[in-house]
Specification:
heterodimer; A: 467 residues; alpha/beta; Thrombin, subunit H; Rossmann fold; 10-stranded mixed β-sheet; 7-stranded antiparallel β-sheet; 13 helices; 21% strand; B: 595 residues; alpha+beta; 6-stranded antiparallel beta barrel; 16 helices; 35% helix; binds adenosine-5'-triphosphate; binds magnesium ion
């Protein structure tokens, strides 16, 4: 057929010499027929091999992004070999318990597991008609999450944090404690680190070890001093493995991606080197689509047993939630857990902000038969009352606490109880859902009954303790 | 037209593919690119160089590969079988793709837009010898239990009926009538194609006067939408745009719903696909899916097809409008569409305007919103397309280009407020920032069909809310104590208004929509509380006593306690409230000093 008429694939051919090196990019001239988004191998005279991806191909020039960076490459001596296929990774169950670098090379001195199951790391878009809507409640043992921002199996729920806030402890605690009540199923964690410090990676590894889960964890580590461009690969590699474990091996996989901010910066670096027109704060206009291609690789599929739950972590520059990275993430994920510096300074752990945090899949995963009948109303009432606490506090700061009405004082008392008893808990404290909900009612009971307009009479009758 | 080679790939950057050595290609022509025959469209033509945007993943395309022309602009196939179906941005049936390529969408899959094998029961309504104008009806097909598909001549055909098939079952490919037109004969089928970027003509554009009743109280009573109108729903992430759109898709009184999931989440589409077939339309008693079309080009699907999805949807809407139906189109989110434009424009190295968006962003937005409207069809029927577009401004800041330009082309604006959303006040439509220019146009309908005093109720509420905003300002500075009770009553009444009326939970089985009678009656009750409460306060009653009335908690819960089919229960509630307030008033009348 007609595709025979197309020019010969360059596979295996080697070109010597580059025409340009710009930041993380190399440019080759005179290559005809390099395939868009395919892989190349870059060899230096000293024998070292790097890997790259074709970002643009034309008759005149081929632009390649080099994952290991370009430092040390020379124009005349570099050899480039075209692989004629997109970037792939070999998959097997043996990946569990192993440690790799950000592009999938073993870091633990063991050979790469044998497999002939190769898959494109870019994945493919999931057909929306093939998805199964996530509804199963994951108990994390954290009241702020279970009670107010319930995590659902197959959800993508990021943690928006700031520098110095305990997002790592929270993520590790969730990974340790997460379970579906009354179900015992194969569970795995895929951990992808992008540009984080060695200490942070160590902290996670220790935490997995402590809970005896390490043999069910796959780690991809691109640390702070590893090549920045490799970070663009790390979540893709990690999610390809997660998809294999979930949909071929029927496991329930929790994917932790940290820190997405470093990923986005690498993307910005490539974009700037290509002199692309930036949108906000220098990030490329396609940042949304790029992030979506990562975050959308979460969920459940009809007819498949496994699932992928994603928990990306990102640090907000200056705690600014309108910065493009948290902003675009929030536009793609199914809610967000926002950490608040003020709570942290008050000594509340986990400092999960009451109002801006949200779990969008909560609505279908809670209630009678799933969690408890009063769950939705209780959560809504806690949100509403806490929102009012914020107003009263603002007022108190203007007119002084003495001037407040008795009702306002009741709200302040509720606020204290909510933060220090409901939100706050130990980093090894694993609360059951019952405990969480009962605690919610307990703190609400400092308010007069008629203030609780979001719960029903029957619920008040049953749970309200303030009479 | 036959496919022919029009050129060879010269350059590939993401979804943009430049084609060189081009001969005899047309602007806007659909092309097939490379060995997998990926679908693309020519968006720029200069000498022997054509720039195309490709609707599928371009990984692996290389310079030198061939490109074929199809001779057609980007079109959709219009005919029975659209309803109840879910398409991608370029009208491929996602359920059929799933049968072919399992859970993932692979590139290069080919699927006919509509089912070409299915037989439909066609009943002709014309006879040989009839002279037909463009867009006239030749017969009907019962497409679903709720929608009769009126088979129309394509808008560019006129002629005299030579022959027509008898009533019977036909596929959309079989000719059902033959017309002679200007000496030529034309075969007419149950379907025809129409280019998506071209507005379908209609006999006459009409003024707007009917409301699109949505069942959302804050919308219907404060910021109403007209059938044939256009509204923008801007808001930061998580403020409730999608839920408002879903809610409208479920409960608004349009005949046909077209939901365009444009660059948004896969799970939201899945949610609809699971929920809609189960939901029963209160008007027809049938499943919602029977009147709905879903177009899903989620955020992880190719960006060029996202750009096309908006046009695919609006063209289908015009098609049902031409049959004489009221169609509502939800586009979630128009910002993702604008970003697709920006991405493609950037890859084409066009000169950017505001924030990297191309200079033609406003004109594209205008073209899209202009396709809304109420028309008289060629057959004298009335049909309309109402457009509801969500806008996702970066950082929730409405001063950005997409929100600002959109504002120029819509007449209703439902601004979602972050503070309200954070306090879980949903729908988070800000009563201070939102507006609707359709209020006057639809007032007559409300007054004739629902309540004489609709407009005055509305205005009274709006005034109260504005007063409250000013008072809140004072309270923030000096506390509520300085306010006299009459002003505190305004605060109190607005709190009641917000809790009992404006807030509406999309998940409460009763509250998720409200029939018009219920809306009006609820509002009257709250205004009675305010008006009579004020009289009592003037006589010396206290706010605390007003709040302690037993009916107060009934009012707060009326939205979920009073079912939609028994709005009269609210009359009884209003009587109880009046009586309680009158009795309280009477006490003070006798002894004004009493406490
Ligand atoms: N009417 C409502 N009733 C109850 N909850 C609501 C309502 N509207 C919004 N919510 C809550 O807010 C969440 C976010 O709503 P939605 O998905 O519509 O936001 P959005 O504006 O579309 O966000 P994005 O721009 O990120 O897509 C919902 O998951 C739900 O929890
Ligand atoms: Mg949305």
């Amino acid at each position: 057929m007609s595709n025979r008429a197309t020019p010969q694939v360059l596979e295996g051919r080697e070109y010597i010499g580059l025409s340009e090196i710009v930041g993380p990019l190399i440019v080759l001239e005179g290559v005809r027929g390099a395939g868009y988004n395919e892989v190349v191998e870059i060899r230096q005279p000293d024998g070292g091999v790097r890997h790259g991806l074709i970002l643009e191909t034309s008759r005149e020039a081929t632009v390649v992004q080099v994952f290991e960076g370009t430092s040390g490459l020379s124009l005349p001596d570099t050899r480039v070999r075209f692989k004629g296929k997109p970037l792939e990774i070999a998959l097997s169950r043996e990946l569990l318990g192993r440690v790799f670098n950000g592009s999938g090379q073993p870091l633990d001195n063991l050979p790469y597991p044998v497999s002939d199951e190769w898959r494109d790391v870019n994945g493919l878009p999931i057909n929306p008609t093939a998805r199964d809507y996530p509804r199963k409640f994951i108990q994390t043992g954290l009241s702020a999450i279970d009670g107010m921002n319930t995590l659902i199996r197959g959800q993508k729920l990021p943690i928006f944090s700031g520098s110095g806030l305990p997002h790592n402890q929270i993520a590790a605690q969730i990974a340790r404690q997460a379970r579906i009540v009354g179900e015992d199923v194969p569970f795995a964690v895929v951990f992808a680190a992008m540009g984080i410090k060695y200490d942070t990676a160590r902290f996670f590894i220790d935490s997995f070890e402590e809970s005896g889960a390490l043999e069910n964890v796959v780690l991809f580590l691109n640390l702070a001093d590893d090549p920045t461009i490799e970070r663009l690969l790390t979540p893709r590699t990690a999610l390809t493995v997660a998809e294999f474990l979930a949909f071929d091996q029927e496991m329930h996989v929790l994917v932790i991606l940290t820190d997405m901010s470093n990923y986005c910066e690498a993307l910005r670096e490539v974009s700037t080197s290509r002199s692309e027109i930036p949108s906000r704060k220098g990030y490329p206009g396609y940042l949304y689509s790029d992030l979506a291609s990562t975050y959308e690789r979460a969920g459940m599929l009809l007819g498949f047993r496994g699932s992928i739950t994603q928990m990306p972590i990102l640090t907000m520059a200056n705690d600014d939630i309108t910065h493009p990275i948290p902003d675009l993430t929030g536009y793609i994920t199914e809610g967000q857990i926002v950490l608040e510096r003020e709570l942290h300074q008050k000594g509340v752990y986990p400092p999960i902000a009451g109002l801006p945090s949200l779990s969008r899949l909560m609505k279908d995963g809670i209630g009678e038969g799933l969690t408890r009948q009063d769950h939705a109303h209780l959560a809504s009432q806690l949100f509403a009352a806490y929102a009012h606490v914020k107003e009263v506090r603002a007022l108190a700061s203007v007119i002084g606490e003495e001037e407040l009405t008795p009702l306002d004082h009741a709200y302040l008392e509720f606020g204290e109880g909510f933060e220090h008893r409901f939100l706050a808990q130990g980093d090894h404290e694993d609360r059951s859902l019952e405990q969480t909900l009962d605690l919610g009612w307990e703190v609400l009971s400092t308010l007069p009954e008629e203030e609780l307009t979001r719960v029903t009479e029957e619920e008040l009758e049953k749970h309200y303790k303030g009479k | 037209m036959d496919k022919r080679v029009v050129g060879k790939i010269r350059r590939v950057v993401g979804p943009v593919v430049e084609v060189g050595e081009v001969r005899d290609a047309q602007m806007a022509e659909v092309v097939e690119v490379g060995p997998d025959h990926l679908i693309g469209e020519i968006v720029r033509l200069q000498a022997d160089l054509a720039t195309t945007q490709v609707y599928e993943d371009t990984t692996g395309l290389r310079p030198g590969q061939e490109v074929w022309g199809t001779g057609m602009p980007l079109s959709v196939e219009l005919g029975p079988g659209l309803l109840g179906t879910i398409f991608d941005g370029v009208q491929r049936r996602l359920e059929v793709i799933r049968q072919q390529s399992n859970q993932y969408i692979r590139k290069g899959v080919r699927v006919a837009p509509l089912d070409h094998e299915k037989k439909w029961l066609f009943r002709p309504t014309v006879r040989p010898g009839d002279r037909l104008g463009p867009g006239e009806m030749i017969g009907v097909v019962r497409e679903t239990e709720v929608i009769e598909h009126r088979v129309m001549l394509p808008p560019d055909i006129v002629g005299i009926v030579d022959s027509v098939v008898p009533e019977g079952e036909y596929t959309i490919e079989e000719p059902v009538a033959v017309l002679s037109a200007e000496g030529k004969t034309v075969e007419v089928r149950l379907s025809h194609r129409w280019p998506v970027r071209k507005q379908r003509p209609s006999a006459e554009k009409l003024g707007l006067s009917l409301p699109l009743v949505t069942g959302l109280r804050v919308v219907d009573m404060l910021f109403p939408l007209a059938k044939g109108g256009a509204v923008a729903v801007p808001g930061g992430f998580g403020t409730g745009k999608t839920l408002i759109q879903h809610s409208l898709a479920k409960w608004c009184d349009a005949d046909v719903i077209i939901f365009i999931g444009c660059g948004e989440r896969g799970n939201e589409i899945t949610d609809m696909l699971i929920e809609f077939p189960k939901l029963i339309d209160p008007r027809s008693g049938k499943s919602m899916m029977q009147r709905s079309i879903v177009i899903a080009n989620t955020s992880n699907m190719p960006v060029a097809a996202r750009e096309a999805s908006i046009y695919t949807g609006i063209t289908m809407a015009e098609y049902y409008r031409d049959m004489g139906y009221h169609v509502a189109v939800m586009a979630d989110s128009t910002s993702r569409w604008a970003e697709a434009l920006r991405e493609l424009s950037g890859r084409m190295e066009e000169m950017p305007a505001d924030e990297g968006f191309p200079a033609y962003l406003p004109s594209r937005l205008a073209e899209f919103y202009e396709r809304a409207g109420m028309v008289r069809t060629r057959t004298g029927k009335i049909g309309s397309v109402t457009t509801i577009g969500s806008v996702s401004p970066p950082g929730g800041d409405f001063s950005e280009p997409v929100t600002q330009h959109t504002k120029r082309f819509v007449r209703s604006f439902w601004a979602l407020d972050r503070q309200l959303a954070n306090a879980r006040h949903y729908p988070a439509i800000s009563w201070l920032e939102s507006y609707s220019e359709y209020t006057r146009e639809v007032a007559a309908w409300w007054q004739q069909n629902v309540a004489e005093d609709w407009l005055s109720l509305r205005n009274e509420v709006m005034e109260l809310l504005q007063k409250e905003a000013r008072l809140q300002h004072v309270v923030k500075l000096v506390g509520p104590d300085v306010l006299p009770d009459s002003q505190k009553l305004i605060l109190e009444s607005c709190t009641l208004l917000k809790n009992a009326f404006l807030q509406q939970s999309a998940f409460d089985p009763v509250d998720m929509y409200s029939v018009v009678q219920k809306q009006v009656k609820m509002l009257r009750i709250i205004l009675t509380f305010y008006r009579k409460g004020l009289e009592n306060i003037k006589r010396g009653a206290t706010l605390v006593r007003l709040r302690r009335m037993k009916v107060y908690s009934e009012i707060v819960r009326m939205k979920s306690d009073v079912p939609n089919d028994q709005p009269d229960l609210l009359d009884a509630l209003e009587r109880r409230l009046s009586r309680a307030l009158d009795q309280m008033g009477a006490v003070y009348e006798q002894s004004p000093e009493a406490t």
